[in-house]
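Mods, move this if it's the wrong board.
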Amino acid sequence: MSFKRLPIGPSGGFSIGVHEVTQSQDESVMGANPSSFKGANNPVENVSWDDAVAFCAKLSALPAEVAAGRVYRLPTEAESEYACRAGTTTGYSFGDDAQDLGEYAWFSDNSGNTTHGVGEKLPNGWGLYDMHGNVWEWCSDAEGSPRVYRGGSWDDDAASCRTAYRGTVDPLSLNYSYGFHLALSSPSGKSPEAEQGKLSRGCCGQYEDTSGQLPNQAVSTGVATPATMCFHAFPELFQNVETI
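Not the wrong board. Structure tokens:
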């Protein structure tokens, strides 16, 4: 797995995984595969928010990761939308036309009622895959219950896969459409943008809080700044490491 660093302003930024965490990666850390749809390169699913946080903690505690000063976590909700938008202000990262979603995402119209291998669809403008569809992705920043998830899944319609769409659920909930991306922090465990005050809930526009109801259209008014991306080194634990 690899990460891309997404700058925010002249300094600061954060790193996020190019792909969703796969079943083989999750099992290599946690020792078991909880997924309903088995496939080594498919995204891990059937994981609760607590499960995803436990994965981040266990990965961060590995000797190689401690020595390298790498701390893994779930992206915040603001980071998740910023990364998904890739500099756009449209309903999806590729535009407003839902007819194009099948080129970028596995969702209810094309998934065949299952997850698929990560990275099989087109990436967004910043080279990040499955930011729409395949599995919902847990976010880190809400406290207590409920927790936020983003991105839509193989089991959801096009409207639920819009960039601004969000859902909330109990952190202990398990579902065969819940997975996660990884973000990479400084050794303090805080995101660089949080430490420097460079990213907040309002940075990407107005969020759609669906409260369990499907909205009629996306609400998105903010402008995310396009940026030049670079690969960030990935831990030795995983294969196919990309370093620039």
